[in-house]
Design goal:
The structure is a homodimer of 100-residue chains.
Chain A (H helix, E strand, L loop, with lengths): L3 H11 L4 H8 L3 H9 L6 H10 L4 H18 L4 H18 L2
Helix pairs in contact in A: 2-3, 4-5
The first copy, chain A, binds a DNA duplex (30 and 30 nucleotides) through helix 3.
DNA sequence: ATAATTTTTGACAAAATTAGTCAAAATTTT
DNA sequence: AAAATTTTGACTAATTTTGTCAAAAATTAT
């Protein structure tokens, strides 16, 4: 299961880009990119979209991964993360059926 | 599928408490409680625990519901919320197997 | 109907969280 | 060991979230 951090690091290395170069292409401070690649900071949605554009990744897929990182992080320290997800799933289903 | 907001409203009404009274018991501003009951504001974890205590609900269950509200809300506007949950689930599993 | 009570709203200031930047420290490569 | 690259930490700025208050709206009682 790949994280956003791993993906953007892999993509940069694939291209043999040093951080300075990635920073120029993405127009994001290289220290920030370093933090993103280490998973220490969470990029904004706009930044995720930049990564998708520059690294030619599917925008939506990348967003899903980025969001799931966020979710996983938020609940990982709870006592029953799986249960929380199950309940959330039902709520989503319910919202879906409602807005139809 | 019940939300945190619905639960705390139901519990208060069950007791025939007006907001002012609930505010006194919970030591939370009544305007805030009103917003919680309408789902317009998200209580802190400490506040959730207060609700559980005062309304005699199972602390952990209430926290799970409160967390799942949060998750559902965060991803409900995404294009594929279900997919995001699936990925998150896998990540959680992975984290679990790792920290064992 | 209107008076009294209760709930909801909106605006605001304070508090907390998150974001971006820089330079120095640490690490890796040459 | 010098040069290049990456990581870290500290700081300020920006954004988001919080709690509070008083007034507005809605509900209930007289």
């Amino acid at each position: 299961m790949e994280t956003f951090a791993e993906i953007i690091k892999r993509e940069r290395e694939k291209r043999n880009w040093i951080l300075r170069r990635a920073a120029a292409r993405l127009d994001i401070d290289q220290a920030l990119i370093s933090k993103f690649e280490k998973g220490e900071r969470r990029p904004s949605r706009e930044q995720v979209e930049k990564f998708a554009r520059v690294y030619k990744l599917k925008r939506e897929e990348l967003i899903n991964i980025w969001m799931s990182d966020k979710i996983a992080y938020e609940i990982s320290s709870e006592s029953n993360p799986e249960k929380i997800l199950k309940i959330a799933e039902k709520k989503i289903e319910y919202l879906n059926s409602k807005n139809k």
